[in-house]
Design goal:
Umud Fragment, subunit A, seven-stranded antiparallel sheet, 3 helices, 24% strand
Length: 185
């Protein structure tokens, strides 16, 4: 019974460890292959919660439509992700009025099409926190320590399972030997 419990716990922890490892590898790959940003404010809630990782796809200015969620980079370098509420042509250039879903009013300045980084194609709630954590030395060390601890616990449980199995085998062999002696006498 104890061996079965240890085996079940070890297998569950191994599965969890592998899930975390492959999840981290997938996150690292995603952030290096796609254009991603972390939502650091609540202006797009509830559609895109604070701490979400958003994935962008390039979009031509003429393809942006009212209702699209776009990311823009202002002239001062600030990056904002808001929903398009209106598109207008001024002096031959396209501009967008944007607004955060949680905001009462649209943004005070029209956004020129040249400032659009891309259109949000998907978001992963709370994954942005992990992405930010991986971007710091202390966060990376913490996650590596977590993976190492998981590996050590799994190894310990595997050793415990082997020891319990060996003890059970010895007891079974001793009982079998004792029953044979009684049959001979």
């Amino acid at each position: 019974m104890l061996i079965a419990t240890v085996r079940t716990v070890r297998r569950a922890l191994t599965g969890l460890w592998l899930l975390v490892l492959f999840g981290l590898i997938g996150l690292a790959a995603l952030t290096h292959v796609a254009t991603t940003f972390v939502i650091r404010g609540g202006s797009m809630e509830p559609a895109i919660p604070l701490g979400s990782l958003i994935v962008e796809s390039p979009v031509a200015p003429e393809a942006v439509e009212v209702g699209d969620v776009i990311t823009i980079r202002a002239d001062n370098g600030v990056v904002v992700t808001h929903r398009v509420t209106r598109a207008v042509e001024l002096k031959g250039e396209r501009y967008f009025e944007t607004k955060g879903d949680a905001n009462q009013q649209p943004d005070p300045v029209l956004v020129p099409a040249r400032a659009v980084v891309g259109r949000v194609t998907t978001h992963l709630a709370s994954v942005g926190y992990l992405a930010v954590m991986l971007g710091t030395a202390s966060g990376l060390i913490s996650l590596l320590a977590f993976l190492a601890a998981g590996m050590l616990v799994t190894w310990f449980l595997e050793e415990l399972e082997d020891d319990l199995t060996e003890v059970g085998n010895r007891r079974g062999a001793a009982a079998l030997e004792g029953s044979h002696r009684g049959a001979i006498a």
